[in-house]
From TrEMBL:
Belongs to the metallo-dependent hydrolases superfamily. NagA family. GO terms for molecular function: metal ion binding; N-acetylglucosamine-6-phosphate deacetylase activity. The active site is at residue 272. The gene is nagA. NCBIfam families: nagA. It comes from the Bacteria. Its cofactor is a divalent metal cation. Zn(2+) binds at residues 129, 193, 214. Keywords: Carbohydrate metabolism, Hydrolase, Metal-binding. GO terms for biological process: N-acetylglucosamine catabolic process. Residues 51-376 form the Amidohydrolase-related domain. Substrate binds at residues 140, 217-218, 225, 249, 305-307. This is N-acetylglucosamine-6-phosphate deacetylase.
Amino acid sequence: MHTAVIAPNVYDGFERHGPSAILIEDRRIVGRVPQGEVPSHYSIERLSGGILVPGLIDLQVNGGGGVLLNNDPTAEGLAAVAEGHASAGVARVLATVISDRREVTAAFVEAGVTAAGDPDSGILGVHVEGPFFSPDRNGVHRRSSLRALDRADWDWIRRAATVPAILTLAPEQVDPEDIRKIVALGLRVSAGHTNATHAEVVRAIDAGLSGFTHLFNAMRPMSGREPGVVGTALSSPDTWCGIIADGIHVHLESLRLAFNAKPRGKMYLVSDAMATVGAREKSFELYGETIREVDGRLVNAEGRLAGSAISLTDAVRFCVTELKLPFDEAITMASRYPAEYLRVDDRFGSLLPGRMADLTWFDDQLNVTGLWRAGQRLI
């Protein structure tokens, strides 16, 4: 199939263009041309208004479509999650499982590796969040599920390394030499749910740790005498930070501070979404406990935050309307930058030739009115 998607405005992940056509062949983008120069053998889909941008990429998705992946770490569960986020305008997700029994983690990784091999699945790879965490910063992660890294874990770690993958861990809970071995396998290692000191984080960075998971949340804060995890994350120019921009997980001024502190390109948006995205039901079970959405927050019985109720498109809108970030930069934080961190930007995150034909169409009110994944229109 040869398809041309014509839009009055196009942002390709690097530059903005006027009326243009994105040319698609065999699931991939082959070029961008002025709207009047589409080859005659292409079928044309013409969009009225708005702007066409790269398909959004969310690197921290615990659930969606009514499914929490800890409860359903299967091919069917992954498909439901991907489609739940597609309904919200997100093209690709890094499926995420939080701290759990080893067999749950292993089953999730196996299903995720299989799904990542299908370009139509919407699953980029896997993100294992835990269980090597600090009990002092566990958040909603069940304390009894936290443990030390041992020999049996290397089986699922090696399997995860066959696809794009992130392992979030607490640097003080894992030996730097083990971090070095995990990084050598090809995984991205990120710090989260950690009470590490500045010195402990620096040692982990020296061993290959490259990111910070949901910055500010469940990590040692910054103080004048101890930079903690937050201060170290903001002061280390070569690391990346994922951040939840919903005005709930991080205060507006803290978001501004973070965006100003990190070099451009080193901060990307995540949703940390749970089962409620793309689903009618606004509650779900986690570790046998009911989590409910209350005033836009997902909380357990203790009132503790349990992931977020937003999609990545909500985070983009928040950045534009509340933080007053330029639309193009907010989009890049939700597409090219996460692709660069995951080292898949040669295939995803922009509308350049050779990339997968993942496209999101926003109207002038920042609502998603169209989504293409691998050239196939989904909404």
